[in-house]
RNA sequence: GCCGGCGUAGCUCAACCGGCAGAGCAGCUGACUUGUAAUCAGCAGGUUUGGGGUUCGAGUCCCCACGCCGGCUCCA
């Protein structure tokens, strides 16, 4: 929080040692900002009229923001016609969007990084300057910085601030480090295109990503973590463990589930079905295609066409492959007259849908073109909506907790108020739906953010996002309140009053899609699946041929588990243990002469290592309990 | 779709300035009969993603297509 210097007993204009100022501010600050610049303990500073204590996180953001400036400075000194877009600090670093006529490639990054080091070593003081908008417009016009002019236009008030270092000047709110010499430990990481102001109809700038830290240690640790995260990548583990594949001749974004992956999917589906039965859902099945007419009524042809595959024509009728399951469930509802006594009616289906996704967005199992949603539609009265939404949210969170997911972000996805023609339905109905979701969130007491423009075309939603191995968030659970489709389809139920009423429809998916969920699960466990879903639960390793008979007896007793007999007795034990480890088998039973003699098995846990010897019954009991609890390894 | 990068054996990767496509692992065969993360030997495996071009000669240079990777836009 920014304070008046006087108020904390300090005199503006006077020279202070930074740590003395921090003492006055009395908190866990690592530095201070005054005159728009960051100062750290050990520095002497002429205090400005205001002073602000800075936490470690804030200081790191400032450093990264300043590193972005340094990078822009370097690019501009190397490429004369470069024009700057924006260059903020982000979660793990920073980026700067820069427009150049000649293309920037990864080779350019080396040059830029070199130039940055040069400019940092030049120990350039950084200065903040406040300009009138007119002066700023003149300044940036003379520099040809057309994007900055657009930004100035959008800034409220009459004044803007700029930061200078050497011959470089940038429009910026700040704050920044006080000297480029503070910027020592940084690295430029990648390069990509980014549309100016996120609008694909505008210019595409080059976005350069990088990161910066206060110490070399922190930088190395971060880079090391990046490498570690790559090892958890579901595409890599998927191949190693033979879980799934994507085949070019079949098509991009279309998934082959191999036996190992299919077992995991089957276990998850079984669990999912049981939970849904307990929670009062009924299962339905629906076809993969439907006549054009259905999609006209639902509004998909108007609002979702971009994502649908082109129609196929047969016997003078056109059919479309389904991108969603909802219209089918609606028709099941409409197959007979419904009474209020039946509501809420909950139809669930593991429904496979196909959506045309633009080629550049496909990503392993996380973004595909054909996928199976764990879909359900709840039809209920207006009064029941909040309870239903609350229950669904609880169920979703429980399910994710079971699989060990901690990093969830809850969003309330509402319409983009500037773009209402992207959605079907009347304002009052949308407001009702948004209100219902908001109330449910408040009742659940969960923290959430409002995401404008993220609503589906037929209604607002609670969207829950899950983190992948490298920190990207993907949508998992979604709960959507929809007053629109019931109206379009003319859905009805007979109320207590004997009259017809319109039900409300809630669309929901918990896991999201099995493909995406599987990807997140692989990365969550880095392939070490809990016993209950592990494709191979036990591997038996008889040391020599001598023990094959006894090993087979053990295997027979453990037939309830997914088990593999490793009878490659020609290889050394160490080698075979290593194979089991790489296959990420939860339990390995080593059987040698001693085990046969004692009538025991030597148990090795994939993560915990050697557990010693035990009897087969004792082991089976332990494993059954582990499966019952669906415990993590 | 857009920007940048990449595509060599099932996997991971070599191949100098354009000059005979190569290794480890996996697979197969055989020897070894083994005590908690790699025993040894042999064999087999390739239209260098596909198509066109330049060249005496292309994995290497150019063009097109396809696919993949990191982003942007878009979305479970």
What attributes characterize this protein structure?
Threonyl-tRNA Synthetase, Chain A, domain 2, BirA Bifunctional Protein, domain 2, RNA-binding, globular, 4 domains, 633 residues, five-stranded mixed beta sheet
Describe the structure.
This protein has 633 residues and is of the alpha+beta class. The protein folds into 4 domains: 2-54, no CATH class; 64-228, 2-Layer Sandwich (Threonyl-tRNA Synthetase, Chain A, domain 2), CATH 3.30.980; 244-525, 2-Layer Sandwich (BirA Bifunctional Protein, domain 2), CATH 3.30.930.10; 538-628, Rossmann fold. Helices cover 35% and strands 28% of the residues. It contains 19 helices and 35 strands. It has an 8-stranded mixed β-sheet with strand order 18-22-23-30-27-26-24-25. A 5-stranded mixed β-sheet has the order 1-6-3-4-13, with helices on both faces. A hairpin with a 2-residue loop joins β11 and β12 (168-171). α4 runs antiparallel to α5 (146-154), α7 (234-240) packs across α15 (514-525) and α12 (385-402) packs across α13 (427-444). The longest helix has 23 residues, at 56-78. The two termini are 45 Å apart. The relative contact order is 0.07. It binds one RNA strand of 76 nucleotides through β14, β15, α7, β23 and β27.
């Amino acid at each position: 929080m920014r304070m008046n210097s006087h108020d904390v007993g300090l005199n503006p204009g006077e020279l202070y040692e930074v740590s003395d100022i921090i003492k006055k501010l009395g908190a866990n600050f690592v530095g201070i900002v005054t005159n728009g610049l960051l100062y750290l303990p050990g520095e002497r500073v002429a205090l400005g009229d205001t002073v602000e204590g800075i936490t470690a996180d804030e200081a790191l953001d400032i450093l990264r923001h300043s590193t972005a400036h340094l990078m822009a400075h370097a690019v501009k000194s190397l490429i004369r016609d470069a024009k700057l877009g924006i260059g903020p600090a982000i979660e793990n670093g920073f980026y700067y969007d820069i427009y150049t006529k000649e293309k920037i490639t990864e080779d350019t990054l080396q040059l830029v990084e070199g130039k940055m080091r040069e400019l940092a070593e030049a120990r350039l003081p950084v200065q903040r300057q406040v300009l009138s908008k007119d002066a700023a417009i003149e300044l940036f016009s003379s520099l040809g910085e057309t994007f900055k002019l657009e930004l100035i236009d959008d800034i409220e008030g009459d004044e803007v601030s700029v930061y200078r270092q050497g011959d470089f000047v940038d429009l910026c709110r700040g704050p920044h480090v006080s000297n480029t010499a503070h910027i020592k430990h940084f690295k430029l990481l990648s390069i990509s295109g980014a549309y100016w102001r996120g609008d694909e109809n505008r210019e595409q700038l080059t976005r350069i990503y990088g990161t910066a830290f206060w110490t070399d240690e922190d930088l190395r640790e971060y880079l090391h973590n990046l490498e570690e995260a790559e090892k958890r990548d579901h595409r890599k583990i998927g191949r190693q463990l033979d879980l799934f594949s994507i085949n070019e001749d079949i098509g991009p974004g279309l998934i082959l589930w191999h036996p190992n992956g299919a077992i995991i999917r089957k276990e998850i589906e079984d669990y999912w079905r049981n939970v849904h039965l307990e929670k009062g859902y009924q299962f339905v099945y629906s076809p993969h295609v439907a006549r054009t007419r259905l999609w006209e009524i639902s509004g998909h042809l108007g609002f979702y066409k971009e994502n649908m595959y082109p129609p196929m024509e047969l016997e003078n009728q056109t059919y479309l492959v389904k991108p969603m399951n909802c219209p089918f469930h609606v028709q099941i509802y409409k197959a007979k007259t419904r009474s209020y006594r039946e509501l809420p009616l909950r139809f669930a289906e593991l429904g496979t849908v196909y959506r045309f996704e633009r080629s550049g967005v496909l990503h392993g199992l996380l973004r595909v073109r054909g996928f199976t949603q764990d879909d359900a539609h709840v039809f209920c009265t207006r009064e029941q909506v909040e309870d239903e939404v609350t229950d669904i949210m609880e169920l979703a969170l429980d399910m994710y907790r079971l699989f060990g997911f901690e990093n969830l972000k809850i969003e309330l996805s509402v319409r983009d108020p500037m773009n209402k023609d992207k959605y079907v339905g009347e304002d009052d109905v949308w407001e009702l739906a948004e209100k219902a979701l908001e109330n449910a969130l408040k009742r659940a007491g969960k923290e959430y953010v409002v995401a404008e423009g993220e609503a589906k075309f037929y209604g607002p939603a609670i969207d829950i996002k899950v983190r992948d191995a490298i920190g990207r968030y993907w949508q998992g659970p979604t709960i959507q309140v929809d007053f629109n489709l019931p109206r379009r389809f003319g859905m009805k139920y007979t109320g207590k009053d004997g009259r017809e009423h319109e039900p409300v429809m809630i669309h929901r998916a918990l896991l999201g899609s099995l493909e995406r969920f599987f990807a997140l699960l692989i990365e969550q466990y880095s392939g070490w699946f809990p016993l209950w879903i592990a494709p191979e639960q036990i591997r038996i390793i008889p040391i020599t041929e001598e023990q094959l008979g006894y090993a087979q007896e053990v295997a027979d007793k453990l037939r309830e588990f997914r088990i593999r007999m490793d009878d490659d007795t020609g290889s050394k034990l160490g080698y075979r243990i290593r194979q089991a480890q790489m296959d990420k088998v939860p339990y390995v039973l080593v059987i040698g002469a001693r085990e046969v003699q004692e009538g025991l098995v030597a148990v090795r846990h994939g993560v915990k290592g050697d557990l010693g010897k035990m009897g087969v019954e004792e082991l089976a009991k332990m494993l059954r309990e582990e499966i019952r609890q669906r415990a993590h390894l």
